[in-house]
């Protein structure tokens, strides 16, 4: 039987040196992640790629399956199931039992794995020893130096050139880097050629070994041993930027500029784009201005220019922004619309209309419609409608086409200026251009008519609205009722109320008194207005007369009443967009709310924090509107800063969930600046967002902040985080993360531990997962079968059969039986490795009374497929077939004897199968028919076909085809004709579709 000591011995025999492809950069910020994102994007398992062995514990330590650990496992027992999810009891006492330092224990067990990625090259070896490590990488290049004892500078240059484009591959770059250093150390007088230095630095950078590339670059540059330092500084700076290490990138950029080296255009572009993404305004301005000074302004990109101009305007450097735009114009560069719009808005804000128009006409640039309307609204407010109309005419020469909002702005502002005639002229102009005015324009005119005392004309304006199918809104009726109340036109009030009922207005109060209903609708019923008759001589109090000549007056506080009415009329001139936005959001009409927000922007109206709050909540509820949240942040930065903590937390979570974690991080900074509390879920969503976007630098930055503020993840959040870390290949850091959980959140530690172990086994790091399992056993923790089987299946996935079978042996001894698929997977791998161990494992299963019959069949089948027929028979003979027989197993045995041409045994097995009515498989039938036809036993072949047909009609066509094939092969034409007639008779009884060649499984029912 396969013993644990055999596994340990096999492991030691199979140990190899870990692959040279294995790579880990020196730690950055106390984290062992790689230097750049492309490295992280490599295939999963790349950290241990090519490694074919595993030793649990340290290099000379013991394996999991040795006697010591096996004894520990027996002592601990396997009675308790610790699994992630509902079965995993993450318990503080268990965490205390594990004790501190378990992460370090596992790292020490896997130290030989982690150390292989670090730089351990010493150089005190011969040239042959160095070449031996990479001879297989480029034999044609290195073979001619095999007998040399030292290298000349020209020789190393030839080696670099010989590797060609493949030198940038990780394993090649590591080998060349070691050879480069060995050559430098072989003699004090040795000096690499400048061209070799350039190529070596470039290779290291292309292989993303950025730390080594940077250190070598700085050393060589100080010694003036480079031919093209500018290109190399640019290359490494650019790659640092692409990797997200902006601090290092900016530092290297500053170093290059201090030496008067000019970076490349692509270096400037990549660095600026990354800085813009992080919203580093000062650094963006510094780098961009430097780019202009060195004469690379023609490489300006639109997004970067927009950011630069906005930053300059925000920093009160408006003139510098204009100078930059003019400088780019002199280079025949097309300026982005965003930059020109920013300048135009700033001109408008400064009320410098003349310069604004000159600027727009100089550039022949017309801002977008909504921005033009906003500018015109600002002009109407600050300079009046006459000046604004003049600007509109100049804009029209640039192609501006005013819309209903444009004329609404002019009409409302004219009414505010008491220019009712001008308002009617703008309305007429609107009609002449076939533009349908908005209801707000009519509201303003109706309010202006009442303000001017022309109340008799109000009804004509209402009629014109209805005639043009512009439905009045509630504000329209409020204005009409307020105006008629102001002038005591109660007959008109009654007419308006009837019109409201006709148009389906449901907000009307009940009652018979016209005045009471009107005042209640206006919200003035609290004034207690009553109509009284003036009985005094001369009617001194009478304000109006009824149809019979009675003098009537309103008994109320007249001053308050009049002020209230005037306020309602004034509201006609100012859009109440905030209440409309809130109403639309509460009704779930996000599209209408966004239109109202856009309308407010064009009118230059201020959106209140309350309205903004409701709008953000509605936008965050739908992933479709995430970009609208970002636009809202840009349009209303000051309003955004007034939002409460709950809303800002919601924004961070929404952006993180939609893969916009960088922007979410900026919102998080707002929370910190204002001293607002940050929710636990906010940190979690942000961390998972960085993981999803593969932004490892952002992840660790956020992790440090989160742990600083005592962030505690939920159990459901552990798995996504751990999964992403494993996919990145930062296994050592994942273990450190788990160790930190033991101190901070002991109740979550074991859940995270199990999750990490399973994820490591799933993503190609089973050797580390096995070390974690051994650590649990050493700590005396009860381990369930789930974790052991995860490790075993992980080894199988990585084709490490020896280790997996050793674990299966333990499982069988402990009566831990895995699923059928898992056994099949194990046997599939094992049969390629050693048939004797198949027999041992079968006997183990039988002794433990494992009744997994398909597993035996799988063993036999796999041995047959690998050509080990005699071993398959020995496995069959070693098993107790009488107790554990099945159709699949019997077919496997039958096929085994057929392959050995042991026809006596074949007949015996066939008799058994017929006796117990076992199903004969197609593969077995094919072998039997071939043998019968070769021996001219055609009647036996026909009889066998009929036997199978009786048990399974669905195989008729397949059986006929096989038999016809071998009959043709034996040239037995008469039997073929009889079979064809037989098939024709079957087809007559059971008509098939036109495609009669198809399997009977596809035959349609008659």
From TrEMBL:
Biased composition range(s): Basic and acidic residues: 18-28
Keyword field: Repeat, Transit peptide
Region (Disordered) residue spans: 18-37
Top-level taxon in the UniProt lineage: Eukaryota
Record bears the keyword Iron-sulfur: no
Keyword Cell inner membrane applies: no
Ranges occupied by PPR repeats: 438-472, 473-507
PANTHER family xref list: MITOCHONDRIAL GROUP I INTRON SPLICING FACTOR CCM1 (PTHR46128), PENTACOTRIPEPTIDE-REPEAT REGION OF PRORP DOMAIN-CONTAINING PROTEIN (PTHR46128:SF356)
Family to which this protein belongs: Belongs to the PPR family. P subfamily.
Protein name according to UniProt: Pentatricopeptide repeat-containing protein
Organism: Aegilops tauschii subsp. strangulata (Goatgrass)
Taxonomic path: Eukaryota, Viridiplantae, Streptophyta, Embryophyta, Tracheophyta
């Amino acid at each position: 039987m396969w013993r644990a000591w055999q596994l340990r011995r096999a492991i030691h025999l199979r140990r190899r040196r870990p692959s040279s492809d294995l790579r880990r950069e020196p730690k950055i910020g106390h984290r062992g992640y790689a230097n750049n994102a492309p490295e992280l994007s490599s295939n999963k398992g790349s950290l241990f790629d090519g490694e074919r062995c595993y030793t649990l514990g340290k290099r000379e330590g013991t394996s999991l399956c040795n006697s010591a650990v096996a004894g520990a496992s027996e002592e601990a027992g396997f009675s308790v199931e610790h699994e992630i999810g509902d079965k995993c009891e993450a318990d503080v006492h268990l965490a205390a039992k594990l004790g501190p330092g378990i992460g370090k224990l596992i790292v020490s067990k896997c130290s030989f794995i982690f150390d292989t990625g670090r730089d351990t090259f010493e150089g005190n070896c011969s040239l042959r020893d160095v070449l031996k490590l990479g001879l297989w990488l480029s034999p044609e290049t290195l073979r001619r130096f095999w007998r040399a004892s030292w290298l000349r500078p020209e020789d190393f240059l030839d080696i670099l050139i010989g590797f060609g484009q493949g030198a940038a591959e990780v394993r090649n770059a590591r080998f060349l880097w070691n050879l480069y250093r060995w050559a430098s150390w072989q003699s004090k007088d040795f000096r690499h050629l400048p061209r070799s230095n350039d190529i070596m630095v470039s290779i290291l950078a292309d292989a993303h070994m950025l730390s080594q590339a940077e250190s070598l670059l700085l050393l060589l540059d100080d010694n003036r041993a480079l031919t093209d330092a500018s290109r190399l500084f640019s290359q490494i700076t650019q790659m640092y930027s692409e990797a997200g290490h902006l601090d290092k990138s900016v530092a290297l950029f500053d170093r290059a500029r201090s030496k008067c080296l000019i970076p490349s255009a692509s270096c400037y572009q990549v660095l600026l784009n990354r800085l813009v993404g992080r919203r580093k305004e000062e650094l963006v301005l510094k780098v961009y201005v430097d780019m202009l000074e060195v004469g690379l302004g023609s490489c300006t990109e639109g997004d970067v220019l927009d950011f630069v101009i906005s930053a300059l305007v925000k920093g009160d450097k408006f003139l510098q922004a204009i100078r930059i735009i003019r400088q780019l114009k002199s280079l025949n560069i097309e300026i982005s619309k965003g930059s020109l719009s920013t300048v135009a808005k700033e001109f408008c804000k400064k009320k410098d209309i003349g310069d604004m128009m000159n600027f727009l006409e100089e550039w022949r640039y017309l801002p977008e419609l909504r921005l033009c309307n906003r500018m015109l609204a600002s002009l109407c407010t600050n300079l009046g409608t006459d000046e604004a109309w003049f600007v509109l005419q100049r804009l029209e020469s640039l192609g501006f086409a005013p819309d209903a909002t444009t004329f609404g702005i002019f009409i409302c502002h004219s009414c505010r200026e008491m220019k009712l005639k001008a308002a009617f002229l703008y309305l007429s102009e609107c009609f002449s251009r076939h533009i349908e005015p908005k209801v707000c324009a009519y509201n303003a005119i109706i309010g202006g008519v009442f303000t001017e005392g022309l109340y008799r004309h109000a009804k004509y304006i209402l009629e014109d609205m209805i005639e043009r199918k512009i439905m009045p809104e509630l504000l329209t009726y409020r204005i009409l009722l307020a105006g008629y109340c102001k002038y005591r036109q109660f007959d008109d009030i009654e007419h308006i109320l009837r019109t409201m009922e006709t148009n389906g207005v449901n907000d009307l109060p009940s009652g018979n008194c016209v005045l009471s209903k009107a005042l209640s609708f206006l919200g003035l019923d609290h004034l207690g207005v009553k109509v009284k008759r003036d009985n005094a001589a001369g009617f001194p109090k009478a304000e109006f007369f009824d149809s019979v000549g009675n003098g009537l007056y309103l008994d109320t506080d007249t001053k308050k009443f009049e002020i209230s009415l005037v306020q309602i009329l004034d509201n006609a001139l100012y859009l109440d967009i905030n209440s409309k936005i809130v109403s639309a959001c509460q009704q779930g009409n996000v599209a209408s709310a966004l239109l109202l927000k856009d309308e407010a922007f064009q009118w230059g109206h201020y959106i209140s924090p309350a309205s903004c709050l409701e709008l953000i909540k509605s936008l965050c509820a739908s992933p479709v509107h995430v970009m609208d949240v970002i636009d809202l942040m840009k349009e209303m930065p000051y309003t955004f800063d007034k939002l409460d903590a709950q809303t800002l937390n919601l924004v961070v979570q929404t952006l993180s969930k939609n893969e916009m974690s960088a922007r979410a991080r900026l919102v998080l900074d707002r929370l910190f600046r204002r001293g607002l509390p940050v929710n636990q879920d906010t940190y979690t969503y942000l961390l998972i967002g960085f993981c999803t976007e593969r932004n490892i630098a952002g992840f660790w930055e956020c992790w440090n902040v989160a742990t600083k503020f005592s962030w505690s993840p939920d159990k459901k959040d552990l798995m996504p985080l751990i999964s992403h870390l494993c996919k990145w290949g930062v296994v050592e850091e994942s273990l450190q993360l788990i160790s930190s959980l033991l101190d901070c959140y002991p109740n979550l530690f074991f859940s995270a531990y199990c999750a990490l172990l399973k994820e490591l086994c799933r993503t190609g790091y089973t050797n580390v997962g096995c070390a974690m399992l051994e650590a649990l056993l050493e700590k005396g923790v009860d381990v369930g079968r789930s974790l052991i089987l995860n490790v075993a299946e992980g080894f199988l996935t990585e084709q490490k059969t020896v280790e997996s079978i050793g674990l299966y042996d333990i499982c069988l001894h402990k009566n831990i039986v895995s699923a059928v698929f898992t056994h099949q997977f194990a046997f599939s791998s094992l049969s390629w490795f050693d048939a004797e161990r198949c027999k041992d494992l079968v006997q183990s299963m039988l002794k433990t009374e494992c009744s997994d019959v398909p597993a035996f069949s799988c063993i036999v089948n796999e041995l047959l497929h690998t050509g080990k027929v005699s071993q398959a028979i020995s496995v069959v003979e070693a098993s107790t077939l009488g107790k554990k027989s099945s159709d699949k197993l019997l077919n496997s045995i039958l096929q085994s004897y057929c392959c050995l041409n042991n026809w006596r045994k074949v007949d015996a097995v066939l008799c058994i199968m017929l006796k117990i009515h076992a199903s004969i498989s197609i593969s077995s039938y094919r072998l039997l028919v071939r043998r019968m036809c070769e021996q001219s036993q055609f009647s036996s072949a026909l009889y066998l076909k009929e036997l199978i047909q009786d048990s399974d009609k669905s195989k008729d066509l397949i059986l006929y085809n096989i038999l016809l094939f071998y009959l043709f092969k034996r040239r037995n034409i008469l039997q073929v004709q009889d079979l064809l007639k037989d098939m024709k008779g079957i087809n007559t009884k059971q008509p098939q579709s036109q495609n009669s060649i198809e399997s009977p499984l596809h035959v349609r029912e008659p």
